[in-house]
Amino acid sequence: MSETDPKFPKRYPVSVAPMMDWTDRHFRYFLRLISKHTFLYTEMVHTGAILRGDRHRFLQFHPDEFPLSLQLGGDDPASLAECSKIGEDYGYSEINLNVGCPSDRVREGNFGACLMRTPEKVAELTDAMNASVSIPVTVKCRIGIPGKDRLEDLYRFIECVRQAGVRRFIVHARIAILGGLSPAENREIPPLRYEDVESIKRSFPDLLIEINGGIRTIPQMCERLKTTDGVMIGRAAYETPFLFSKVDSVFFGEKDSPKSRREILFRMGEYVEKQIVEPGIGKPHHALRAVLGLFHGEPGGKRFRRILTERMYSDYSSTLLMEAAEVLSASALDPTSSSVETEFSSPV
Ligand SMILES: Cc1cc2nc3c(=O)[nH]c(=O)nc-3n(C[C@H](O)[C@H](O)[C@H](O)COP(=O)(O)O)c2cc1C
């Protein structure tokens, strides 16, 4: 498969990681307001939820969210193939297989990180997925698991799965400890080994090898991009989302100015009203929680967060974002503004 093949994934220097309970459609819409080009992922969706659950709830998205990858979890080739096709029909840009989740529940279901023990199985799964779609199939994995944590093991894993046609690998640069550590501990305790991912990139120059784990700032992204094809950002995306306002100009050559925080708030207010309140689907807080970190580190940011948290569950009104924003300084709302403004008469 060459780079001109439609099944060869496009290179995106920056992406936001799949994160359960975070990267739902509302959070992705919010991120897309901040960055037009960052590649986005869904939360992991298990094949059973698509084949036997409320499919639409898990798969629907707003057209503005593109480019967007659907992350699947599972261990059955036929189910993964069927779900990949369903994902393609929904319009996703890519399908990604989760080979990195260390949770006990996932391990008991024989998918996620424990699949790193059996590269042939992952090749069988991705082969079936690839055969059912005409969009790229990609893999997110760890650098290893106990007993399979040497660089040679990772090399063998990548080589085996590559044979099944996978051309983009996103590698979380930590091993996953299965049993004994919670998923949160598994994102902190095993040390980062960026050099393993860099070594894989050198060994497989024809593949897109992206790196994930512990990357929180633009300089760190620049550093990691010297030796890999892309950086995937997890927790920093919800803790400090406005970080992404610089990503388009720094990494994607975008010339237009990013939206100010004030415009983002205005647009999220509109989104909550038009996409949730008016059609009567969901609850406003499902989308408003995305906004909580928008003013992280800014004067008044903590109070903004507190007001929103206190009121978004039970005391929502269409003016809530504006009212919460009254505690913020003009510079937090719009760095170019010199006057104090708390009304959103216009989005910019
Ligand atoms: C709340 C949360 C949920 C996550 N859910 C998923 C998931 O659904 N699929 C997945 O592949 N990784 C998941 N991860 C792992 C992240 O994608 C990422 O690999 C990890 O957070 C390391 O990146 P970071 O150091 O930039 O946060 C999750 C992480 C967090 C914090």
Main attributes of the structure:
348 residues; alpha/beta; TIM Barrel; Four Helix Bundle (Hemerythrin (Met), subunit A); 2 domains; eight-stranded parallel beta barrel; 16 helices; 8 strands; 14% strand; globular; disordered C terminus; binds flavin mononucleotide
Explain what you see:
Its cofactor is FMN. It comes from Leptospira gomenensis. Residues 16-310 form the DUS-like FMN-binding domain. The active site is at 101 (proton donor). Catalyzes the synthesis of 5,6-dihydrouridine (D), a modified base found in the D-loop of most tRNAs, via the reduction of the C5-C6 double bond in target uridines. Specifically modifies U20 and U20a in tRNAs. This protein has helices at 25-34, 47-52, 55-59, 77-90, 104-108, 119-132, 151-162, 194-203, 218-225, 236-239, 247-251, 261-277, 284-288, 301-311, 320-325, 330-333, and strands spanning 14-16, 39-46, 68-73, 94-99, 137-144, 168-175, 208-212, 230-233. 39% of the residues lie in helices and 14% in strands. It has 2 domains: 14-252, Alpha-Beta Barrel (TIM Barrel), CATH 3.20.20; 261-333, Four Helix Bundle (Hemerythrin (Met), subunit A) (Up-down Bundle), CATH 1.20.120. An 8-stranded parallel beta barrel has the order 1-2-3-4-5-6-7-8, surrounded by 5 helices. It is an alpha/beta fold. Helix 4 packs across helix 6 (119-132), helix 6 (119-132) runs parallel beside helix 7 and helix 7 crosses helix 8. The model is unreliable at 337-348 (pLDDT under 50). Helix 8 (194-203) links the parallel strand 6 (168-175) and strand 7 (208-212). The longest helix has 17 residues, at 261-277. Bound molecules: flavin mononucleotide. Residues 17-22, 43-44, 71, 98, 100-101, 140, 172, 187, 212-215, 233-236 line the site of flavin mononucleotide. Flavin mononucleotide (FMN) binds next to strand 2.
